[in-house]
Design brief:
The protein is an alpha/beta fold. It is built from nine helices and eleven strands. The strands form two sheets. It has a nine-stranded parallel sheet. Helix 6 links the parallel strand 8 and strand 9. Helix 3 (about 95-105) runs parallel beside helix 4 (about 120-135). The longest helix has 15 residues, at about 60-70.
């Protein structure tokens, strides 16, 4: 597997890198959250565009992105507009969703953009090519808040994301039993051994917390942790996440 390097951060080697979401609804709240990251173990920030009051306005995105880049220094920044169907704050039309992605890629502040696999293969190819043409890496993501599909389906989705050109492939699913968590971990271990790009896998909720801290063992390259507001069910506090990753590291 080829690790992905972003502002000196190697994604896909060593311990999972800690990503902390910025969930503020206004630029001032986002900037306050960004300022707090310096005293945290965050290794990447995730700007949740869907949580902003004007998160689909290109002018607001460009202005806020520049302010965040100044506040974050060299901390990598991932931009995510999570649509309602995949657990986000609101829905967007395909055209508006494309505009948000392209604005984030054009602004110069963002290092990675999340694109949802559910947007469709043609959409994904077009937006992925756009991001790459502007030097921005892409996380392709699949979310299922209802259940954990079987091993075969999850492996198929990871293969598709790689085939489409993902720099990083991400799956987040909801467990209904401990066996579902094991399914996710089995998929992670199996695919990480053959993947050409880093993968990120999450079993959500309290039941799936083990998946968030075991990435170094099973092969998940990023883990999402909260500072003052979780962006998905089951996120642990960032300080606790850092402590657990160190405690459970097979490499000491």
């Amino acid at each position: 597997m080829q690790a992905v390097s972003v502002r000196g951060l190697s994604i896909g080697s060593g311990r999972p890198k800690i990503v902390v979401p910025l969930t503020g609804s206004t630029p001032s709240r986002l900037l306050a959250q960004a300022g707090a990251l310096a005293a945290s173990p965050a290794q990447m920030a995730e700007w949740r565009l869907d949580g902003m009051e004007q998160g689909d306005d290109p002018a607001v995105l460009l202005r806020t992105g520049a302010q965040l880049r100044s506040a974050l220094g060299e901390l990598p920044l991932l931009a995510t507009f999570r649509r309602a169907a995949e657990g986000g704050a609101r829905e967007l039309s395909p055209g508006a969703y494309a505009t948000v992605i392209e604005t984030a890629a054009l602004g110069g502040a963002v290092d990675l953009v999340d694109i949802e696999l559910s947007a469709g293969e043609d959409f994904v190819r077009r937006e992925l090519d756009f991001c790459h043409a502007h030097g921005v890496k892409v996380i392709l993501s699949y979310h299922n808040f209802q259940c954990t599909p079987g091993i075969g389906e999850l492996l198929q989705r990871l293969r598709l994301m790689e085939a489409l050109g993902a720099d990083i492939a991400k799956i987040a699913v909801m467990p209904r039993s401990p066996g579902d968590v094991l399914t996710l971990l089995d998929v992670t271990q199996e695919y990480a051994a053959v993947a050409d790009c880093p993968i990120v896998t999450v079993s959500m909720g309290t039941l799936g917390a083990l998946s968030r801290i075991s990435g170094e063992v099973f092969g998940s390259a990023l883990t999402f942790a909260a500072l003052d507001g979780a962006s998905a069910p089951g996120q642990l506090p960032a300080q606790e996440m850092a402590r657990l990753l160190e405690l459970l590291s097979p490499n000491g």
